[in-house]
Amino acid sequence: MSFRNNYRHEQANGRTRVSVRTAKIAAIAACLLCPAPPAAAHEASGGLVLLLPTGNTMVGAAAAVAASALLLAIAPRLKSPRLMLPLRMPALPETPVSVLSTLFVLMLIWIGRTGPDDPLSNPIGYGVWTLGWICMSLFAAVFGNPWPWCNPWTGLLALIGNRPRFALPEAAAGWIACGQFLIFAWIDLISPYNMDPERLAIYLAVYWAANLIAMALFGSTWFGRAEPLGLFFRLLGRLSPFGRDGHGRLTLTLPGARASEEPPPDRGETAFVLLALSSASFDGLADTFRWLTVIGVNPLEFPGRSEVEEANTIGLLGAWAVLSILYLGAVRAGEALAGVRIPGLAARLVVSLLPILVVFHAAHFTVRLIMDGQYLWRIASDPLVRGWDLFGTAHYHVSASMFSDPARVALVWAFQTGVITLGHIIGIAIAHAVAMRALPDPRRAVLSQLPLATLMVAYTVFGLWLLAAPKI
């Protein structure tokens, strides 16, 4: 998700709001780079316009996904290999780590309320968004779910000996997570105060306290299924190639293999996955010139988030609705082609969207992580904003100079293109595995996948277009 607001548009080294002057500079740069094939402007975080050819890349990536779908369709049923690595993973105690996480959250709330007003200097934004959201999500997808240890609630509740008093209906848990995540996404994508330290401290305090009370009342069901980050990281953890067997030995399998083997999400959790993916997609769309033109805003004179709150709120809800309709329609069309009706197939197949969600996340935040990593390096020397210089980095100069080098920009683009393509291929592989389990007849299984594979190819093109589209 994007966290750009008026603060972000004024970051160091020319990361300013796009203006007419910026557009002229971009045009001059394009001329200097000629001769070159037709190129689209690719924005890389707040005013850095990367002029790169994208047409061939988009077609090639879509062709790769289509080819992978074809190969999977004609491939025999194969069991994912699972290697036993000669390593034992000791069980890490959850309570002490969770207590440390609680202290970290309370520290962020305190710093947000008492620290500097400048979001580039106050650690709370980096703690919440960069570490708690972006990095934690990528960690979960690669190494497994860290939330049982890193959550800021269960350790505290264990210390006080809390015993839940009520049973939360499991069917309602996923929908509660949807409601909380929708608020989370609105603050992130639409609120003008998503990086304001004082407001962010209030948001974080309310979120932490509300879920603490709910977990005290409803216990593990709320933690694992109704708290949105717990649900999100648990689902992403299914994609990790790493795992542990019953003896604590480390296992290695293909990325996403466990996603098709574990119990499918329920209806609320299915809606949650669709909400998470649609919000990630709208995050990329909301800053594009195309979207701003549609809602009647001149992208060269962007008035700020407060002026587009209503339109973007409608857009966020609309993105969730549109993706849900397209996905459910693709599943139903696949059943019609196969001549079958399988109860719960939409819930089983929704895990195939998880790799797409992860790669959208990784590609969209590539530039953000490069920049925020430098800010975190500087903040690490003075985390409490007390004028310290613990590691000698308090005066580190944050630089975006790498984005002025066409060769380095090309590497960034190649990485983004590659991860999006790979993620969609993994998604199709998961859908193939789910279909083969649901339909023993290989021909019917292949037919049932065709509409969803087509949707994934289209989503590949859409994702790459978002990376290449001009943005504010």
UniProtKB/TrEMBL annotation:
Alphabetic keyword roster: Membrane, Signal, Transmembrane, Transmembrane helix
Transmembrane portions of the chain: 57-75, 95-112, 124-145, 166-189, 201-224, 313-333, 345-367, 410-434, 446-468
Signal sequence region: 1-41
Transmembrane recorded as keyword: yes
Record keyword Hydrolase present: no
The name this protein goes by in its record: Fenitrothion hydrolase
Organism: Paenirhodobacter populi
